[in-house]
Design brief:
The protein is mainly beta. It has one helix at residues 14-21; strands at 7-9, 30-41, 44-48, 59-64, 79-83, 90-94, 100-101, 106-110, 128-137, 145-153, 162-169, 189-195. The strands form three sheets. A six-stranded antiparallel beta sheet has the order 7-6-9-2-11-12, with helices on one face. The chain has a four-stranded antiparallel beta sheet with strand order 1-10-4-5, with helices on one face.
C-alpha cells in the first residue's frame, strides 16, 4: 500500500464466506468473522479501525446468486455491503504472546513493523493476527455467494513484501472479540482460505 487514505481490496473471499453460511449453526442475520494471519515477508499493511474512525472501518461487500433456491425464502439480499460496527468487532492479536487489542487505531495486516522480526512460524514478535466481525449478515443458510471482498482504508504506505492468509471463523454465529489471550487465534478457522 503506497497511499494513506486510499482504499485497498482483498481478492475474492466468497469461498471463505460460503464455508460459513453452509454451517449447521448459520441463520440469516448471524455474525461472520474473517481472520487474517501472517504468512511471510516484512511488509506492514496498516488499515484504519472502527476505534480510529468508524466511517473508515473495513467494509464487506458480497453478491449472492439471485437464482439460488435459498433466496426464495425472502430473508436475504442479493447484494450486501456491511461495515465493521464497533471496536469489539475489530481486533488484533500479537501471535507470539496472544495479546489481543480491540481499541487499537490501526490493524496491521501481516507484520506490525517494517523493522522485520516476523516469522512464518508465528514466533516473531511483530506477527499479527487480525479479526473482523460483521454483525447481522442477512444471508440465508446455504445461499451461494458468487463474489465477496473486503475494503480497507490505508493509514500509511509500505511497499515491502508481505503476504497473509484469509479464513473465516468456522462458526454459525461468531461472538464479539474481547481481550482474552489468543481470542482470535484460538477460534477454529474454516477449511476454505484465500492467500493475499
Amino acid at each position: 500500500w503506497t497511499t494513506p487514505a486510499e482504499s485497498y481490496s482483498t481478492p475474492d473471499i466468497s469461498s471463505v464466506l460460503n464455508d460459513v453460511v453452509s454451517r449447521s449453526g448459520w441463520c440469516g442475520a448471524n455474525a461472520i468473522t474473517v481472520m487474517f494471519s501472517y504468512d511471510s515477508g516484512t511488509g506492514s499493511r496498516a488499515a484504519l479501525t472502527s476505534a480510529m474512525d468508524p466511517t473508515q472501518a473495513p467494509i464487506l461487500h458480497l453478491t449472492i446468486d439471485p437464482n439460488d433456491p435459498a433466496m426464495s425464502t425472502g430473508c436475504g439480499k442479493a447484494t450486501l455491503t456491511q461495515q465493521v460496527s464497533s471496536s469489539t468487532n475489530d481486533a488484533s492479536e500479537t501471535q507470539k504472546t496472544g495479546s489481543v487489542s480491540t481499541t487499537t487505531s490501526y490493524n496491521y495486516l501481516g507484520c506490525s513493523s517494517t523493522t522485520s522480526n516476523c516469522t512464518s512460524s508465528g514466533t516473531g514478535s511483530n506477527n499479527q493476527e487480525i479479526g473482523l466481525r460483521f454483525e447481522n449478515v442477512n444471508i440465508p443458510k446455504g445461499a451461494t455467494i458468487v463474489d465477496a471482498f473486503l475494503d480497507f482504508t490505508a493509514s500509511g504506505g509500505d511497499t515491502s513484501a508481505t503476504s497473509f492468509n484469509i479464513a473465516g471463523e468456522a462458526a454459525g454465529d461468531s461472538a464479539a472479540f474481547n481481550t482474552n489471550t489468543k481470542n482470535i487465534s484460538s477460534r477454529s478457522a474454516t477449511s476454505a482460505a484465500v492467500g493475499w
